């Protein structure tokens, strides 16, 4: 577990309601309404907390007949706290992790449910956004301009600007008729 | 200012105080996210209190002579905010539901619930002063949204 993942984990469980949910799940897997009844909270509040616990990687859900059952990820909770705080990553690893976290934040801020809200003005952020869109392009595959436009338009209406930017940033290359992914 | 407006403001201020108490209690009990949802409720109340002042200014600029006419204009203008402001919340809620984003769903639901509570209270208090048009307005809105009057 990385330092950031450990921070996320500790932040997530430092909430009484979430801790009580974990305590309940340690008895047996439960569904939202059962947890709500046990803890005297509304089902929507329970769902809210379960989503956070799922994001932190402490619980997971599984469909069981009519119910979505929530389970503890016991392996994560059985980890030794000392192991979690012993960070043996190098400065290079930490730098990489910081960059990944920055990119993650930029993506979270600029994308909403898979759509690009607006094109970042700052080059560093724009490059992150372009690289995220680039993931839709297969390495080695040739695309017509129409295909490129359609892929980019799934993210944002201004596909011309984004397509041009991807060429300028050397993420895509082109000849007279085709485009392809470089990186 | 009309009696019902004073009563309404009193209601909203009491509600805000109660929400603040809840928020503080939850925070002290290490339930920060639930506490934040009460803070959201406080913010929504605050928005609609500010809209009262904006409505007051707008109605004053209309320079209406009759008191009844002024009261009617005030209520119409004020209740309009309950249609306009939550529009984006409704859109966000729909989008979040579509993507099963329970965290956003909960926040948008809290905002809409609070706005609806305030709107209903305003109509209830104003109707007591025999503003028949308000009852008609409420009935019309309910018919449009499929609720019972």
Question: Can you walk through the features of this model?
Answer:
Chain A is of the alpha+beta class. Helix content of chain A is 57%, strand content 14%. Chain A has helices at residues 3-13, 16-27, 32-39, 43-55, 74-77, 81-85, 91-110, 123-134, 145-153, 159-168; strands at residues 59-64, 67-72, 111-112, 115-116, 142-144, 172-174, 178-181. In chain A, the strands form 3 sheets. A 3-stranded antiparallel β-sheet of chain A has the order 5-7-6. In chain A, strands 1-2 form a two-stranded antiparallel sheet. In chain A, helix 9 crosses helix 10. Chain A is elongated. Chain B has helices at residues 3-28, 32-62, 67-84, 87-98, 102-128, 132-145. Chain B is globular, with a radius of gyration of 17 Å. The mean pLDDT of chain B is 87. The A-B interface holds A 14-17, 44-45, 47-52, 112-113 and B 29-34, 95, 98-99, 101-103, 105-106, 109.
Strand content of chain B: under 5%
Mean pLDDT of chain A: 91
What letter string, H or E per element, gives the SSE order of chain A? HHHHEEHHHEEHEHHEE
Instruction: Give me the side-by-side strand order of the main sheet of chain A.
Output: 5-7-6
Radius of gyration of chain B: 17 Å
Number of helices of chain B: 6
Per DSSP, the total helix count of chain A is: 10
Instruction: Please describe the biggest sheet of chain A, giving its number of strands, its sense, and whether it closes into a barrel.
Output: 3 strands, antiparallel
Shape of chain B: globular
What gap, in angstroms, lies between the N and C termini of chain A? 29 Å
* Average pLDDT of chain B: 87
- Spans of chain A of at least 5 consecutive residues whose pLDDT stays below 50 are none
**Series of H and E elements of chain B:** HHHHHH
Approximately what portion of the residues of chain A adopt beta-strand conformation?
5-15%
């Amino acid at each position: 577990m990385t330092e950031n993942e450990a921070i996320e984990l500790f932040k997530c469980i430092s909430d009484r309601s979430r801790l009580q949910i974990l305590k309940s799940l340690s008895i047996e897997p439960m569904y939202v309404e059962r947890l709500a009844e046990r803890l005297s909270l509304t089902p929507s509040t329970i769902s809210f907390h379960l989503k956070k616990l799922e994001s932190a990687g402490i619980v997971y859900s599984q469909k069981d007949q009519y119910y979505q059952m929530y389970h503890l990820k016991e392996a994560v909770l059985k980890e030794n706290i000392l192991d979690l705080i012993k960070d043996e990553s190098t400065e290079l690893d930490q730098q990489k992790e910081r960059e990944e976290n920055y990119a993650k934040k930029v993506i979270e801020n600029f994308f909403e449910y898979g759509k690009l809200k607006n094109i970042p003005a700052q080059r560093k952020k724009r490059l992150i956004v372009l690289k995220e869109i680039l993931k839709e392009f297969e390495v080695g595959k040739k695309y017509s301009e129409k295909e490129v436009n359609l892929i980019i338009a799934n993210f944002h209406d201004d596909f011309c600007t984004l397509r041009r930017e991807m060429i300028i940033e050397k993420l895509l290359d082109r000849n007279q008729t085709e485009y392809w992914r470089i990186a | 200012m009309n009696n019902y407006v004073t009563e309404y403001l009193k209601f909203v201020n009491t509600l805000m105080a109660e929400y603040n108490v809840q928020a503080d209690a939850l925070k002290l009990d290490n339930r920060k996210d639930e506490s934040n949802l009460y803070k959201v409720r406080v913010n929504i109340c605050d928005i609609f209190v500010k809209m009262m002042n904006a409505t007051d200014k707008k109605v004053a600029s209309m320079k209406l002579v009759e008191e009844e006419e002024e009261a009617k204009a005030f209520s119409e203008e004020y209740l309009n905010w309950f249609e306009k402001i939550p529009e984006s919340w409704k859109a966000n809620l729909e989008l979040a539901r579509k993507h099963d984003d329970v965290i956003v769903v909960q926040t948008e639901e809290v905002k809409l619930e609070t706005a609806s509570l305030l709107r209903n209270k305003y109509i209830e208090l104003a109707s007591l002063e025999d503003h028949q048009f308000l009852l008609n307005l409420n009935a019309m809105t309910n018919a449009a949204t499929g609720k019972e009057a």
